[in-house]
Amino acid sequence: MRVDVSGLTVRYGDVTAVDDMSFSLSGNKIYGLLGRNGSGKTSLMSTLAGYRRPIGSVQLDGEPVFENAGAMRNVCLVRHTPDAADKGDKVAEALNFGKAWRDTWDDTYAHELVELFKIPLRTKVGELSLGQRSALGVVIGLASRSPLTMLDESHLGMDTPTRYAFYDTLLNDFMAHPRTIIISTHLIEELASLLEEVVIIDSGRLVLQEEADVLRSRGTEVTGSASDVDEFTAGLTVLGSKSLGRTKAAMVYGTLDDSQLIRARQLGLELGPIALQDLFVHLTEPVGGKR
Amino acid sequence: MKIFRQVTASLVAFSTIVAACVFAFVVVVTFVVSAFRGVEISAWNIVTSQIARWYLLWAGVYVIHNLLPIAVAHGRTRREFLVATSGFSVVLALAMTLVAWLGFLAEGGIYTLMDWRADEHGTPLAYFLMFLVWCTVGMFCAAAFDRFGAGGIFSVPLGLALVIVTTVRIPGSGNLPFIRNIPSLLGSGWHVMSVAAFLIALAGTWAIARDMPIRLRTS
Amino acid sequence: MFDDRSPIYRQIADRIKADVLNGALKADEQVMSTNQYAAYYRINPATAAKAFQQLVDERVLYKKRGIGMFVSTQARDMLRAQGRETFFGEVVDPMVAEARAIGIPLADVIRRIEQHENGDV
User: Fold this and answer.
1) Domain that holds residue C106
2) In a 3-state reduction of DSSP, which class is residue A30?
3) Quick check: is A208 in a domain?
4) Domain count of chain C?
5) What pLDDT score does A186 carry?
6) Same domain? A52 vs A177
7) Which of A35, A231, B98, C120 has the most beta carbons within 10 angstroms of its beta carbon?
C-alpha cells in the first residue's frame, strides 16, 4: 500500500508534534520509523491510521484516510498500549472485536500467536504484564493482515527471547503475506537487519528517508592522527568526532569518491563503517549536546 | 452493520442477563421484607424507574468511551460507528423496556398471589423514552469528556436537563422544579419533549465524536 | 548474526562465495530461496534478494525461472582465480606486516610455511 504524506502538521495546543512533513512510501516493504522520544513518531502514525484529522494531507493508495471507510479498512495501527484492547476486557474478548469488525482478520493465526507468546486468554488486558500487553498488540497487528500495518514501540517490556520470537514472526508473516509494515523502535541495532527502508524524524521533521543498506554505506568512520583527520574531513559532513590522545575518529556522512579514498590511504587514515544505530544517534539531536 | 450487530448482540444479551439477576434479587428481597411488614410498593418499580436509567447511562458511556476507540483501531470510521450505536441505543432501550414490562407482569402475578399492594408505574412509552435519553446522554457526556478532558464538565448541565425531561412521566421519580404544572398540563404530549431530548443528545454526540481524535490509553 | 557495519547483502554474498569455495555448495546445486535465507539470518528478504542479484551479476549463481537459484558451473574456478589474484595483497602482506610488528623474523615465518608444505604441522 502506497503512503503519501504532504505538508502534514499535528499540533496539541501550543506543542507542534509534527511540523509540515512530506514523504512517500512506495509500499510492500518493512519500514523503520526512527526518532527519539517526542520526535513525533506516534503522532505521525496516528494520522496515518485515521486516529486524528490531519492538517495537510495523508493519502493511502491515493485516498485520504481520515473518516474514509474504504481507506480505513486497510490500516491497522497498534500503539504501545493497544487501542483495540480495552483494559477491562479479557484477552479473548479483545480478539473477538478483531474477528467481528475486521474483514481481513485471521482468527486462526491470532490464536496461534497468542499461544506462541503465551498470553493467557482468560486474563483481563489490564492485568497483563507490560511485555504480554505488547505481545497482544503484536498479535492484533499481525492477525489484522492489514495492507498497512503499523507497530509503535511494540517491543516495550518484552524480554529478549520474546523479542526474537516477535522478529521471526514478523518476518515470516511478511514473507507469507507481503504488505506495508511500519515499525517504530528504539532498539535499532536489533531490528536493523529486518528493515528495508528507514525513515528518520526529529522534532517533528523528516531528517532522511533511505534504503537501510544504502544508509549503512553512507557513514564512514575516519580514524588517524588528529591533524590528518581534520585535513581529510574539511568540507565533508562530520556528524561527530572523538579523540584519544593524538588519535581522532570522525564520523563522516556521505559517500566518499575515489580521489577521497586515495587521499585517505596516502594520509594513512583508517576507514570503517558506522552502525545504523550510531548513524541515527548522530543524525538526530544528541542529548544535552550540540548537533 | 457488523458493528451494530456485534454491539447489539453482546450488550443487549448482557443487559438482559443483568436485569434478570436484579429481578430475582428484588423478588427475594421483597419476600424477606414481607416477613417483617406488609408490602405496599413495587420493588421492581424502584429498579426500573430509579436504578435502570443509571445502567442505561453507563451503557452509553461505555459505548463511546470504550468501544469507539476499538472500532477506529480496527479500521472503522467514527461515522460507521455512530450510525451503528445510534441504532443500538434505540434497540437497547426497546429491549430494556420489554424486560421492564415482563418484570412488571411477573411481579404483578406474584403480588396478586401474595395479596400485596403495588404502586403506580409509568407507561411503556415513558420507560422507553427515559431509557433512550439516558443512554444517549451517556454517549453525549462521554464524548464530551473524551474529547475535551475536564472541559467535558460543561456537557453535564445540558445532560442533566435532558434526562430530567424524561422523568416527568414516570411516577415516583420526582417532579420538575419551578414548572411543576406544565408537564401535567401537556399530558402525554410531554413525550414530544423526550423525543426532542433524545434528538438533542444524539446530535450533540455526533457533533463531538464525528472527528474526535483517538487518544492514547493511559496504562 | 551480522556486525551491522557493512551492507548486509555483501556479507551474505561473501558467505555464499565462501561456501562455494570450500565445496559446501557444489556446481549446479540449488541454493536456498531468498525467503529461507531471510528467515535463517533474520534479515529482510529484499536484502537477501540483493545478495543473490549481486552473485548473479558476478556469474556465481544463475537463475532458473520459477525454480530458483543455482551455483554456476564455473563459479568455483572463477572464485579461486579471483582469490589467487588478491591472496598476496590481502593475506600474505598483512601477515608479514603483523610478523614484523611483533618481531618474528621472516625466516621463521618461511620455515613454518615449509613445515606446512612437508606436512609436519
Assistant:
1) 87-118
2) strand
3) no
4) 2
5) 80
6) yes
7) A35
What is the C-alpha separation between A158 and A163, in angstroms, rounded?
6
Q: Kindly report the pTM of this predicted structure.
A: 0.87
- CA A89 → CA A92, A93, A95, A118, B73, distances in Å? 8, 6, 10, 18, 15
C33 vs A contacts (CB less than 8 Å): none
| Closest Cα in chain A, distance from residue C18 (Å) | 21
Q: Does residue C64 belong to any structural domain of this protein?
A: yes
Each residue of A253-287: pLDDT tens digit?
Answer: 888 888 888 888 888 888 888 888 888 888 886 65
* C68 and C14 in a common domain: yes
Query: How confident is the prediction along chain B (219 residues), in pLDDT tens digits per residue?
Result: 788 988 998 899 999 999 999 999 999 988 888 888 877 788 888 888 888 999 999 999 999 999 999 999 999 999 999 999 999 999 999 999 999 999 999 988 888 888 887 777 778 888 899 999 999 999 999 999 999 999 999 999 999 988 888 776 666 555 544 455 555 555 667 788 889 999 999 999 999 999 999 988 764
Residues A38 and A173 in one domain: yes
A210 in a domain, yes or no?
Answer: no
**Interface touch A101/B216, C-beta < 8 Å:** no
| pLDDT score of A268 | 84
Q: Are residues A162 and A75 in the same domain?
A: yes
A67: closest chain B residue by CA: B77
Q: Which range marks the domain in which residue A69 is found?
A: 3-203
- A259 located within any domain: yes
Touching A: B residues 150-179, CB under 8 Å: none
How close A38 comes to chain C (CA, Å)? 26
Taking CB atoms and an 8 Å limit, are C50 and A213 in contact across chains?
yes
C-B interface (Cβ pairs under 8 Å ≥ 3): no
Residue that finishes a domain, picked among A172, A203, A234? A203
Distance between CA B49 and CA B187 in Å, rounded? 19
Same domain, C92 and C64: no
Residues 73 through 102 of chain A touching chain B, CB cutoff 8 Å: 73-79, 81-88, 97-98, 100-102
Tell me the C-alpha distance between B149 and A214, whole Å. Answer: 46
Kindly list the residues of chain C whose beta carbon comes within 8 Å of any beta carbon in chain A: 1-9, 35, 38-39, 41-47, 50
Closest-approach residue (CA) in chain C for A277? C4
**Do C59 and C97 sit in the same domain of this protein?**
no
Claim to verify: residue C30 and residue C55 sit in the same structural domain: yes
Model ipTM value: 0.89
As for how many domains chain A has, the answer is 2
pLDDT per residue over A165-218, tens digit each? 999 999 999 999 999 999 998 888 888 889 999 999 999 999 999 998 888 888
Neighbours of chain A (3+ CB pairs under 8 A): B, C
Do residues C24 and C60 both lie within one domain? yes
Is residue B41 within 8 A of residue B101, CB to CB? The reply is no
Task: Please state the separation of Cα B207 from the chain's center in Å.
Answer: 21
Cell numbers for B21, please give them.
Answer: 439477576
- In angstroms, rounded to a whole number, what is the distance separating the alpha carbons of residues A158 and A200? 24
Examine the pLDDT at A288 and tell me if it is beyond 50: no
d(CA A92, CA A100): 12
Closest by CA position to A96, among listed A80, A78, A110:
A110
